[in-house]
Specification:
194 residues, alpha/beta, Trna Endonuclease, Chain: A, domain 1, 5-stranded mixed sheet, 4 helices, 38% helix
Length: 194
């Protein structure tokens, strides 16, 4: 089959495949590296953790939590976004802006999703503090000020320290964690009806 394809096309195709493989490897390595950094930052706070947990949203639907961490002070929701560039946003603004390479792009305020998750968790386990953190894992910054519940990798450790230094340990935290992990589902498990 390759006998009928000119050598020039074979070499070009081979180089394109190598470039494509390198781009996939590079992206995987960057994402994996960011997750390792987050794991190291969470280590002093984490008692337990569950990833990709699906819980009822309180309105008959379901909601996925990318990462839910049990800490001494309560529950921590972590949502990551691989967005780079200069970021502009605030707590109550519907659309945030990313500026990269001189171009501007709009994206939905990621804090809204975190706040919806927090409300759903608080309905399941009232009186347990629930903290939100949206982490931008690519090379990004907030030149005009960063919303309180947003972080970039460079500021995540300091941002979490600020939150947990002031927080008090709640009563019945272990019971709340057991309830959430019992009601929630992972890997296509059915929800427990209570």
């Amino acid at each position: 089959m390759f006998d009928t394809i000119p050598l020039y096309y074979q070499v070009t195709l081979g180089l394109l495949l190598l470039l494509f493989a390198w781009l996939i490897y590079y992206r995987f390595r960057r994402v994996h590296s960011a997750l390792r950094i987050i794991d190291e930052i969470l280590k002093p706070y984490r008692r337990d953790e569950v990833d990709h947990l699906i819980i009822p949203d309180g309105m008959g639907g379901l909601m996925e939590i990318e990462r839910l961490v049990l800490t001494e002070q309560g529950l921590l929701i972590i949502e990551t976004y691989p967005i780079s560039g200069h970021l502009f946003g605030a707590d109550h603004i519907e659309q945030w802006t990313q500026i990269i390479n001189g171009k501007s792009y709009k994206f939905t305020n990621p804090l809204r999703h975190c706040h919806n998750i927090r409300e759903s968790l608080q309905a399941l386990v009232p009186k347990i503090p629930v903290f939100c953190r949206v982490v931008f894992t690519a090379d990004s910054n907030f030149p005009k000020g960063k919303p309180a519940e947003a972080s970039v990798l460079a500021t995540l450790a300091d941002d979490l320290a600020e939150v947990f230094d002031d927080a008090k340990a709640p009563q019945r935290l272990d019971d709340a964690w057991q309830r959430i992990t019992r009601i929630g589902r992972k890997d296509q498990q059915p929800l427990v009806n209570e």
